[in-house]
Amino acid sequence: MSATHYDGYEGLNRLALDRAGQAEAFDAIGDRYDDAFPHKDGQLTSGAWLAGTLPAGSRILDLGCGTGLPTARQLTDAGHRVVGIDLSPSMVELARENAPDADFHRLDIADLRGGRLGGPGSFDGIAAYFSLLMLPRAEIPYALGMLHDLLRPEGLLALSMVEADVDDFTIPFLGNSIRVSGYLRDDLRRVVHDAGFDVVGEDAYAYAPASTDVPPEIQLFLHLRRA
User: Fold this and answer.
1) pTM for the model
2) Is residue 222 within 8 Å of 42, Cβ to Cβ?
3) Which of 20, 112, 127, 180 has the fewest CB atoms lying closer than 10 Å?
4) What is the SS3 assignment for 157?
5) Strand order in the sheet with 197-207
6) Are residues 171 and 189 in contact, defined by beta-carbon separation less than 8 angstroms?
């Protein structure tokens, strides 16, 4: 990919209606999400890396902010300026309650084109915890390209995905159905490298949600720097 990816980002429009359907599932889940995922050691550790590596007062995008816990609150408590987006109205409402010092918007990732929350180089860091896995694989490189553009030179991206060789695969999720994509870790490293990122750190965690309908999973956390 070239240094600027906006022109190639039109692929993220293709399944906008389907993503709206995914948002409806999270609207129905609401605050049960945090009850179902009570232990987020990997996300907290990754968030601490992002918070501690960036200069104080950095502007950070929380992509797919969910309930605002733990990431938006963790980053604002560390003194950073957080802008969170989520497609689910219920999640945005909960995030505003849980992390009142952050700024939240009901937006799809595709809405960030055209400088909606700031143009290229407008963020010092980005947290994308389990948000890109909601996209089909064909759209993930375009999304990573846009995140690359939104970061300042040498800006940081904290990315997490579930390790799985699946593409737009339907799974049961807290009494609803959602579609997810994943990569095996070598493939994920290749995808982020092709999008213009250097991997500066990596962790993997075995995680079993507090739910009977979601099997244990391997969560991958990549710490990335814009090359």
Assistant:
1) 0.85
2) no
3) 20
4) strand
5) 103-106, 81-86, 59-63, 123-129, 151-162, 217-226, 197-207
6) no
